[in-house]
Each structure stands twice: as C-alpha cells, then as structure tokens.
Amino acid sequence: MIAVPTDLEIRPLGASADLCVELADLLVEVVARNGSVSFMHPLAPEVARAFWERALAAADRGERIVLGAWLDGVLAGTVSLLLDFPPNQPHRGEIAKLMTRPDLRGRGIAAALVREAERVAIEHRRTLLVLDTATDGGASTLYESLGFTLTGEIPDFALTPHGVLTGTRIYWKRIGARPSHSGVDR
User: Fold this and answer.
1) How far is 38 from 160, CA to CA, in rounded Å?
2) 173 vs 162: CA distance, rounded Å
3) Contact status, residue 163 vs residue 34, Cβ threshold 8 Å
4) At 44, which helix (H) or strand (E)?
5) For position 177, what pLDDT does the model report?
6) Quick one: which of 167, 124, 170 has its CA closest to 12?
7) How would you write 90-131 as a 3-class SS string?
8) Out of 3.40.630.30, 3.40.50.300, 3.40.50.11480, 3.40.120.10, which CATH number does the structure's domain 8-128 have?
9) pLDDT means per 10 residues in the chain (186 residues)?
10) Residue 1: per-residue pLDDT
11) Angle made by CA atoms 128, 134, 139, in degrees to the nearest 5
C-alpha cells in the first residue's frame, strides 16, 4: 500500500473562476498524457474551462460532488462523485473524472481521492458505487486494490485522447449499509 502524503488536503469544490482555471489546466495536462476522461487531444483550455464551469455548477446544485486534492498548495488531483440519478436509483453513486497530475502520480493521491469519495457517498446515503475505466492505460489496478469488482469489459468503447480505440471496464462496489426496501412488497 502506498503511503498518502501527510500534507495532502482533500476538500469539496464549488464554483470559482480561479478554480476552473486550475482544474482546466489539470484536465488539459491529463488528456495530453493520454488520460481517457472523455476528451480528445489537443484539448483547448477554453473547452476544459467550460467543462469545469458546468461541473462545478452541477456541484453547487447538489447533482455531484467534485473533490480536489492539494499537495503543497498545488492542485494534485480531482475526482467527481455523481449523485443525480433517476428516482429508482437513490442508493447509487458513480465515480467519474479521477485525475492526478502526471508528475505527482504514484504517491497515493488517486487512492485517497477515491476513499474520500466513498466516505462522502456514504454520507449521502449511497450504498453502491459504479465506475468505468479505459482498458488501455486506465486505472483498473487502482480500483481493484480499493475493493471494486470488475463486472466486465466492453471492447472498442471509446477513443483514447490520441485517437486509438480502447475498451472500457465496468466496476462496482458496495459501501455503507445495504439499502432498505420501501414501497410495494413483491
């Protein structure tokens, strides 16, 4: 197990112009390094900023939680916990857009972000987390080390940022207490 830096600070993020610039810079850097987070390279900074403006506005509405990790005053990484699901899925959350600054990888930052997302999900009464990661260059090893279960793989699911087809692996993990059943007995 990799030790997390003791001075790592993780906190939820809200809308802020300065923060959008920092997050956009991180997103552009991750995509340039072939991080498969739904964008193609080269990613224009204004496109990245617009994404984060929408994401942080959704966080302010309670539809998601965006967590940021700071190390020595530098934005080291981020992850989003998606919470906006249909009425028949109030117990579910989704881990999305896990990114760590490439020069800070291997220090336990991504694992700390996912653990914090799990803790926050439990606070929001979520008992099931799902996520997907690219087959090529994705974070399967990390997610499996954190107890996520591989459901399966879909081949040729998306393009990598540099234009190569890759599959995606779908994972799930139960967290917190099991949901109680309410409503009609079956």
Assistant:
1) 8
2) 30
3) no
4) none
5) 81
6) 124
7) CCEEEEEEEEECHHHCCCCHHHHHHHHHHHHHHHCCCCEEEE
8) 3.40.630.30
9) 83 95 98 97 98 98 98 96 97 98 96 98 98 96 98 98 97 86 45
10) 62
11) 70
Nearest to 55 by CA among 97, 93, 18: 97
Instruction: Give the model's pLDDT for residue 31.
Output: 98
Q: Where are the domains of the chain?
A: 8-128
Q: What is the distance between the alpha carbons of residues 35 and 100, in angstroms, rounded to a whole number?
A: 10
d(CA 114, CA 119): 9
- At residue 4, the pLDDT reads 80
φ/ψ of 63, rounded to 5, equals -85, -20
Q: Which of 79, 85, 78 is nearest to 63 (CA)?
A: 85
Structure tokens at 15: 């809308």
